[in-house]
Amino acid sequence: MHVRTRVSLVLFIAVLCALPASGVSAPVAGAVPAAADTSGTPPQDAAAYISEGKSAVAGQNWTEALIITTKGLAWYPDDPELLCVQGYAYLKIGQYQRSVDQVSRAIPLDPRAVRYANRGYGYLALGNYTAALADAESGIAQDAEYSTSYGVKALALQGMGKNQQALDAIDTALGKAPDSAHYWHVKGRILASMGDCSGATSALEKSLAIDPGYSLPYPSFGSAGRALEQLRTECPPVSASPSATTPKASAGAVALPGLCLAAALLPGLRR
User: Fold this and answer.
1) What is residue 257's predicted lDDT score, i.e. its pLDDT?
2) 191 is a domain residue
3) Which tens digits make up the pLDDT trace of 44-95?
4) Is residue 256 included in any domain, yes or no?
């Protein structure tokens, strides 16, 4: 195995396996709220449950979001927004299959790019890169300006080993949202897997400069800070540039081989 190939493999594993950032909820086993009582009249309409659920999500209170959406879905089981808010909360606590299942119920009811992207992240977390790529492409077909679809596409392609295509996709996402800490983080991961230590370091530093504590798409994604730390540990040291005092060949010495080659060719040219 070539040295460059070994370095690329080490970098890919190091960045991909970085630990989650502090402050991100760890996966909660069996985090399923109890079913709500649906006897009588609904205490409020679906919009109220949606608003409360989104408020809980904004505060990163995933358990509260699950409780609220479970109550809402007991009364409004086919509301796509409630299904998606719940699917998003499941994703954030590491319940990836439940997340995919809930968003899969919502998509036929109201297909949107954001829903395909949310399910795509669930598939990425499960390691199903083919399904994630399909969702990314469906989202792009729905709304070509929605940058998140390109982020999902980039990660799916990277997972499939198509790093150059992944890099193209994340550059498209950055073209639409250049101040996204997440997209710079993703670009750093891709460049690291390609063995580009300098480019990966620059991208990860850019991510951290924008927002060092941004909310990761799912707990096992790994933070940009830890990825950068691992990258600096695993990257080989930069080779020293040649010394300015290194003796240079004289003009005559450089010219001599050329003259000899010309002399050798002359007999043939004269024929």
Assistant:
1) 40
2) yes
3) 999 999 999 999 999 999 999 999 999 999 999 999 999 999 999 999 999 9
4) no
| Domain count along the chain | 1
Model-level pTM greater than 0.85? Answer: no
206: tokens are: 């850019």
- Using CA atoms, how far residue 194 sits from 18, 158, 190, 215, 223, in Å, is 17, 10, 6, 25, 19
Which residues contact residue 189 at a Cβ distance below 8 angstroms, ignoring those fewer than 6 apart? 15, 16, 155, 158, 200, 227
Please give, one letter per residue, the 3-state secondary structure of the chain. CCHHHHHHHHHHHHHHCCCCCCCCCCCCCCCCCCCCCCCCCCCCCHHHHHHHHHHHHHCCCHHHHHHHHHHHHHHCCCCHHHHHHHHHHHHHCCCHHHHHHHHHHHHHHCCCHHHHHHHHHHHHHHCCHHHHHHHHHHHHHHCCCCHHHHHHHHHHHHHCCCHHHHHHHHHHHHHHCCCCHHHHHHHHHHHHHCCCHHHHHHHHHHHHHHCCCCCCCCHHHCCHHHHHHHHHHHCCCCCCCCCCCCCCCCHHHHHHHHHHHHHHHHHHHHC
Mean pLDDT in residue range 3-7: 41
Residue 70 covered by a domain: yes
Domain limits for position 212 = 31-234
Domain-embedded: residue 263: no
**pLDDT digit string (tens) for 125-169?**
999 999 999 999 999 999 999 999 999 999 999 999 999 999 999
Q: What is the CATH number of the domain that holds 97?
A: 1.25.40.10
pLDDT at 29: 45
